[in-house]
Amino acid sequence: MRRMSLSLALRAMLVLAWLSAPAVGAQSFEVTYADTVDPGPLTGRLIVVVAKDNRVEPRLQATSFGGSTPFFGIDVEGWKPGESATLGADTLGYPVDRLSDLPAGDYYVQAVLNVYTQVKRKDGHTIWVHLDQWEGQNWKRSPGNLISRVERVHLDPAAGFQVKLTLESKLPPVQVPPDTESVKRVKIQSKLLSEFWGCPIYLGATVLLPRGYGQNPEAKFAAIYVQGHFGLNPPFGLSARTGFAGKGPSFYDAWTGEDFPRMIAVTFQHPTPYYDDSYAVNSANNGPYGDALTQELIPYLEEHFRILARPEARVLTGGSTGGWEALALQIYHPQFFNGTWAFYPDPVDFRRYQLIDIYRDENAFEVPSGSWAKWERPISRTADGQVTQTVRQMSRGEAVLGSRVRSGGQIAAWDAAYGPIGADGYPRPLWDRLTGKIDKEVAAYMRDNGYDLRHNLAQNWPTIGKDLTGKIYVSCGDADTYFLDVAVDELAAFLKATKDPPANATFEYGRKKTHGWQPMSNADLVRKMAERINTTAPGLVPLR
Questions:
Q1: Which residues have C-beta within 8 Å of that of residue 414, sequence separation ≥ 6?
Q2: SS3 323
Q3: 65 pLDDT tier (thresholds 50, 70, 90)
Q4: Which of 168, 183, 342, 457 is the most exposed place for a label (fewest CB within 10 A)?
Q5: pTM over 0.90
Q6: What confidence score (pLDDT) does residue 238 get?
Q7: To which H or E segment does residue 8 belong?
Q8: Sign of CA dihedral 262, 263, 264, 266
Q9: pLDDT for position 242
Q10: Distances (CA, A) of 283 to 4, 120, 127, 196
Q11: 3-class secondary-structure state, position 4
């Protein structure tokens, strides 16, 4: 009887061990957090990153651009301390589709929770989004996001694995650089945006003052508004005598020298719950950012930094996202600004949304061929034409980082800035992230609401043309990394054909130049801006 009891007990133990062990070939990450880290419950996007090395933390290696370190993501809602959230074999991954696609080997893994906040918007929608913590909508660095320790593990998808991770700490607050004699920072709560979102929303600016600003308290200055991604460094990268990207010293010497135009340069901070900036326009999803910048932030700066509150004294510039914004601000507010220098701007004609014609193409991922063949559409390339990423790949990367257009990525940024609100209160995407099917109603909305800048100009030139003559300068490399030159070509063709009045716009191309090419130094750019201002308002900008 004793032997029979032992035998039965042993069998029971073996059955229990078999039931509790992962099935052969099954793969999963199980993530928990304790109430000592956060009392919960929490809602957000849970991401696990799987890196081959630990040169930097795995979370810092993950990106939806290019050949990223693999990562996987799921939504969690009302997640309580001590509960397990599981990322399994069917969890979306990028650039590998699933956990079973990982080669067997040793890895460094880390979990991150991008925390969402519930907001009740003025339009009646209640949604969950990540509210920026002055980091620029960056899930990898956002203060308050939860992270685990980096764990070294052996993963063999064929044999199966079950890795347990614990979110043990929160990312710290952003350290804002201190002000100096020539660099000042401001952060104000926007009444317009806070009313729209139903919670405090902030705008900011970094202000670069000219030589002699403090010695002449009665002087007022024209302003250069430099557009671009979120950042706390000064305009033109002027942070110290050593400069920025090897170009700083010459600009520093010019800006602080005796024979240089005396102007004030400003960069904006205007992150949204969907991206690191708003694209500087009013938007159904983002809210009235265009109004907030022109009616709240710029007047605040003009009052507090002795900036001339005159249209002749306001000029714009920027590159890439900032190039689109610099152009859009001038077009949307033709009398408010006195000229724009837009470098390698994001798509300015949506018939060339990079290489997609959003009005005619049925699918963003595939090039229409008229045959049985299906050709993948690229989204980036090298200078010699080698494809480095496809639209399908980048779309999947964003799908992994966030559902409902909450990835914080580039495609999501355009959907949020240009597109309509979906029935669920989130941005209605232009195309499905996993199939590429284009929503033609969204495309028409983007066009009809003025975000297709070439179409906007074509529709409104008889009204606004007189206020834009001579104010538009655009440059781009003809081998732009993201194919942005093809839309610039369309804009150039339209503006060169304008009459009554002629646009007198300037376009310049760099032969075999990629994204980031600029045909002039920043110092020469400032000189050209001063020349433009003084031509329209003689003597407004002191030249020394």
A1: 346, 430
A2: helix
A3: confident
A4: 168
A5: yes
A6: 57
A7: helix 2-20
A8: negative
A9: 36
A10: 75, 17, 16, 11
A11: helix
